[in-house]
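Good morning C.,

I know you're traveling, so I'll keep this short. The sequence:
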Amino acid sequence: MAEGATITGVQRRTVAEDVYNALKRDIITLRHRPGASLTEQELAGLYGSSRVPVREACGRLQQDGLLTNQPFKGYFVNQISLNEIGDCFDLRLLLETYALELAASRATTDDLSRLEEIAATEYTYHDWESYADFLDRNLEFHIRLAELSRNGRLVAILRDLLGGMQRFFFLGLDLGDFASEMRSEHEQLVELLHRRDPDNVISCVRNQIQSSRDRILRALIDDRIELPLR
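The tokens, ready to paste straight into the viewer:
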């Protein structure tokens, strides 16, 4: 009996993980738009599971800052505000430039060779599935960059911050075909790290973060999505 219960628990956790990943991707790619109302019953039907795995997945997404639960009403996709975007980019600029400053002196040649493979990732313009895949790889690239700092606490903070910013990044992708430009930005960072050139590494990452912020703000100006001005 105990063995059967363990298998059932493992199976439930696997389903909950699948629901979590699918729902998170759909929130990040704005299939569930900011402010959207979601119920456990609706989500169970949409993602082919029972309500228990949905509840577990939604609990994790609340911790990720993507969902809010309101008793007797269900879940709501958290809004995106201009203030939040600004605050997150300010923090990213501070943390990621420091991580890259450390990485410039601590990264090994093998580290950078592995990073080059991820840097080569691009996406297909107007293909939302391709956008989602690219965002996953882009997040992996920036986390790997942070890991070169050899500062575990800094990596953990950046992982949470960048993960929560995925919806912001998605806003800028459909504004224009920036795939080759973004690939070049990543490859340039790796090349500067190879050269052990901390000043230019920091300057480069500052410019790239500003470019990312500008793309998102341009998407908002072009009315790609309406956001509360708070």
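Safe travels,
E.
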